[in-house]
Design a protein that fits this description.
This protein is of the alpha+beta class. It contains nine helices and 21 strands. The longest helix has 12 residues, at about 130-140.
């Protein structure tokens, strides 16, 4: 449920090229993302979830800003920012890559798109990567230009996204591989179409390259999707928790490293290029982290999404905190992501809810199965 207050707006809280269409579609709630408005609810959290998992939605995710890096040292700067080996990223390819500082802390977890050998977009989550990248470029003397281009993404997500993409852009979208993109035009509107998105329902992200044409692009895709039951939507809290999709600033922050966040699979610690976090991450290599982001199930009646971290404890000792929680109508239980201590007191894990009550908690596997705790979530 949206919180019982309104959001004051001003010119420094930027709207998006699709804002008028979003308002006309009946948006119910926004959050702030990279200093922009990001829709979060249209009909209701659960109704939006059901439609997303059954049909197809059009999302205004223009708050997913691009940090453009161009020039002779563009690859060197991007490599310096991340432990992921970006040198192996082909032109026309995307890579999910955690950015890490000199202490190994996660600065952001963007998608990196390579448009040319010396031209990248870092498609960022909610943190000021533009300023960080500018500082790194100046401090290291890289021969690059770092800027925020006039690029605003829409997302097309859901099981029928492929049908709508074909209707809007052409049959070639069927052959577009995951994490690949193509620069193209639709009715004279310049876009980049990528097979990617912040859900696991399948879909595309369409990067508009001229903000003045936002309404025209929205209408074109909406009309192409009418026969498939397209509706406006947004990144859905329930779906992303079920899919273990991290929300930077909520589930992980600068205080966490890739091992704690479970992002070590996206790190190439021995990559040939130099990177800022090499020494810090090398020192932690092979060690079990003291805490790790886990899927957890919270027992009892359904709970509302949390507005603050919910403390975890075992045998009366602190054992971490729940970062994101919601009731899953598909799983019929409360699901959550939590930063859980890997060494904790024996005994049941419990969470304290905002009203002071406690619930039993169990760590779940990737299919949300709980070992030895069948009654959890019932």
């Amino acid at each position: 449920m949206p919180p019982p207050f309104t959001l004051s707006v001003s010119p420094r809280l930027r709207s998006t090229p699709f804002h008028d269409r979003v308002l006309a579609a009946g948006v119910q709630a926004f959050t702030v993302y990279n200093h922009m408005l990001l829709p979060t609810v249209y009909e209701s959290l659960e109704a939006d979830y059901r439609h997303l998992t059954e049909r197809v939605q059009l999302w205004d995710v223009a708050g997913e800003r691009q940090v453009e890096i161009r020039g002779r040292d563009a690859l060197a700067l991007v490599e310096w920012m991340t432990p992921r080996d970006v040198g192996r990223c082909a032109v026309g390819q995307c890579k999910y890559a955690p950015l890490a500082d000199e202490n190994g802390g996660i600065v952001n977890d963007p998608l990196i798109l390579r448009l040319a050998e010396d031209h990248f977009w870092v498609s960022v989550a909610d943190s000021d990567v533009l300023l960080w990248a500018k500082g790194l470029a100046a401090g290291r003397g890289f021969d690059v230009t770092v800027s925020e281009p006039d690029v605003s993404p829409l997302a097309l997500q859901g099981p029928l996204a492929g049908d709508v993409a074909e209707a809007a852009f052409g049959a070639w979208t069927r052959a577009l591989r995951f994490f690949r993109f193509r620069e193209t035009e639709i009715d004279g509107i310049p876009v980049v179409v990528a097979r990617s998105g912040w859900s696991k329902q399948g879909g595309f992200e369409i990067y508009l390259r001229d903000g003045s044409l936002g309404g025209a692009l929205w209408d074109r895709i909406r009309d192409a999707g009418a026969r498939y039951g397209i509706r406006p939507g947004s990144p859905n809290l329930i779906e992303r928790i079920e899919s273990r999709l991290i929300s930077y600033g909520t589930d992980v922050t600068l205080e966490h490293d890739p091992f704690e966040a479970g992002l070590d699979a996206f790190c190439d610690l021995d990559k040939p290029a130099e990177y800022l976090a090499r020494d810090a991450l090398a020192a932690r290599r092979g060690r079990a982290p003291a805490r790790r982001l886990e899927r957890v199930v919270i027992g009892g009646e359904r709970i509302e999404p949390n507005m603050a971290f919910l403390p975890l404890h075992a045998a009366g000792r602190a054992a971490g905190y729940v970062t994101s929680a919601a009731y899953s109508p598909r799983l019929e239980r409360n699901v959550a992501l939590a930063m859980v201590a890997t060494k904790r007191e024996p005994g049941a894990l419990r969470v304290t809810l905002p009203d002071g009550s406690e619930r039993e908690v169990a760590v779940a596997d990737e299919n949300w199965r709980v070992s030895g705790g069948a009654r959890i979530g019932v």
